[in-house]
Amino acid sequence: MKMIKKSLAMVSVFALALSTQAFTADDAADDPELVEPQIVEGEPAEVVAKEQEIEAGVAAGDAATGQEIAAGVCAGCHGPDGNSIIPTFPSLAGQHPEYLLKQLIEFKAEEGETAVRNSAAMSPMVATLSKEDMENLADFYASQQAAPGTASGDKELVAAGKILYHGGNIENGVPACASCHGPTGTGLPPHYPALAGQHAQYTLTQLDLFNKGERTNDNEVMQKVLTRMSGTEKRAVSEYIQSMSAR
């Protein structure tokens, strides 16, 4: 399997951000080649094994069974079809199944250990879920149609976020978000999630968690990016992501 190596990921996205500085956000969105990440060979054996396990889990998942589980456990926060109407909870519809399964696994704490992705909201929800349950849930949400994004009332903030998402901030060394999440916000499976249409409030919360080091299940890629972003930039890109057409 191929992926962006942690040691090379930032070099790749910074180079891509530099390549877009002479273009507008519309130029970047119209030409996917401007933000196409470089994929390199080679991963540690344990990473490959984990990814293969997740791929096998996705293949074994059953969306119909996942829908039944979701109705009883997840719908209250994420909506019956994965389109959340509560801005503090993410929409899951149309997300890559590998990414969904990885997050579910990492929310669940092993006996005597802290969860890889620690969450006061999610930890009790996944505590009783089996690996099979998670596989079924991932397949169900991935099979759902994501609702269209909604525009923010702050047009200037959205415009600033659009430029940052597609072109980065060269002066501060912030790479373009599109380098990993795609020019239309569809993500780069299995490692980088789709973002288009996601609630701005939820996205901003996650950016803050990465920034504070309270969320660390990303091979430190996002943590490195966030050290260079201002609070205004985080808000701007979150608002723009919400306004993007849904994945």
Short summary of the structure?
Helix content is 51%, strand content 0%.
Any overview of this molecule?
- By secondary structure, the protein is mostly helical.
- It is built from 13 helices and no strands.
- The protein has helices at residues 6-19, 25-30, 45-60, 63-73, 75-78, 97-107, 123-126, 131-142, 155-167, 178-181, 200-212, 221-226, 231-243.
- Helix 3 crosses helix 8, helix 4 (63-73) packs across helix 8 and helix 6 (97-107) runs antiparallel to helix 8 (131-142).
- The model is unreliable at 1-40 (pLDDT under 50).
Please specify the SSE layout and strand pairing.
Layout: H1 6-19, H2 25-30, H3 45-60, H4 63-73, H5 75-78, H6 97-107, H7 123-126, H8 131-142, H9 155-167, H10 178-181, H11 200-212, H12 221-226, H13 231-243
Helix pairs in contact: 3-6, 3-8, 4-8, 6-8, 9-13, 11-13
Span between N and C termini? 24 Å
Summarize model confidence as the mean pLDDT: 85
Shape: globular
- Helix share, percent: 40-55%
**Classification by helices and strands:** mainly alpha
The sequence of SSEs as H and E is HHHHHHHHHHHHH
Largest sheet report: none
Question: Low-confidence spans: pLDDT under 50, at least 5 residues?
Answer: 1-40
Global Rg = 18 Å
Number of helices: 13
Number of strands: 0
Bin the strand percentage: under 5%
